[in-house]
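Re: [ENG-882] Designed sequences occasionally contain unexpected residues at chain ends

Forwarding the minimal case from QA. Structure tokens:
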């Protein structure tokens, strides 16, 4: 996707979104999700970002329904440059669909943007409602034991050539997890066309497999498979860098009524 912007007129948060595809090229994780998407007729991409996976699926011949959901306007503006899918601006907890999708995915560690139990419960409940019975939910999150936040420090900057052909340096700085597993992260972008670096900030939550399983079960999911790498190595809770989960939507009992946003 082409990127056209005036670097003098954006803030750090917008720049972070504009550079997302430039910094995160297609790789093993995207290919992992694409296999699931191509095998499902109706697909919801929760936290779709710039729509990379759905755009690729359509380009490779997917003929069914594709829908992307994301709360970030700058990300979704880029997705909307393509008509490969339906695009909706909203957080996961506000997904409005009921029984319309065979598959929901949440890629790119987007699950870590659910920063507390209440948001996690509401988001999973909305995803479950959007799926048909026995529909599949596939997502990933970083394994807390790998302590990925320790690699996000300003002593390890990386240099890139931005989409305009200009050199740029990016510094990251992260704190330690709080009592809820939430890590505050800051990214600083340094280039010659700014007098001072632009700054983007966010928070990410790290939770382990036991907590994930509790949330999934409460929302009406059962874990089908779990991997620790994109090569589909079995998940080892002590060593795996990622918690990659495929879950099935359990059939609702007759007369069941959802308690959140029904």
């Amino acid at each position: 996707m082409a990127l056209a912007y005036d670097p003098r007129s954006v803030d750090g948060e917008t720049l972070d979104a504009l550079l997302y595809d430039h910094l995160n090229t297609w790789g093993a994780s995207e290919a992992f999700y694409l296999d699931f998407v191509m095998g499902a007729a109706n697909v919801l991409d929760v936290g779709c970002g710039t729509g990379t996976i759905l755009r690729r699926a359509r380009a490779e011949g997917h003929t069914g329904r594709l829908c992307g959901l994301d709360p970030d306007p700058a990300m979704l503006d880029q997705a909307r440059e393509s008509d490969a899918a339906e695009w909706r601006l909203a957080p996961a907890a506000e997904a409005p669909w009921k029984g319309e999708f065979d598959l929901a995915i949440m890629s790119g560690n987007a699950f870590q943007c659910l920063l507390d139990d209440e948001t996690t419960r509401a988001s999973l409940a909305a995803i479950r409602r959007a799926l048909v019975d026995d529909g599949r939910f596939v997502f990933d999150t970083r394994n807390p034991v790998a302590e990925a936040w320790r690699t996000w420090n300003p002593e390890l900057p990386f240099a890139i050539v931005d989409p305009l052909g200009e050199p740029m340096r990016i510094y990251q700085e992260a704190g330690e997890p709080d009592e809820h597993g939430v890590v505050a992260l800051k990214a600083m972008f340094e280039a010659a066309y700014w007098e001072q670096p632009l700054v983007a900030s966010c928070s990410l939550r790290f939770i382990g497999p036991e907590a994930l399983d509790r949330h999934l079960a409460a929302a009406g999911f059962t874990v089908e498979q779990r991997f620790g790498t994109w090569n589909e190595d079995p998940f080892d809770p002590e060593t795996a860098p990622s918690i990659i989960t495929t879950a099935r939507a359990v059939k609702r009992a007759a007369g069941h009524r959802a308690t959140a946003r029904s």
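QA comment: On inspection the terminal residues look reasonable. The longest strand covers residues 131-142. Proposing we downgrade this to a documentation issue.
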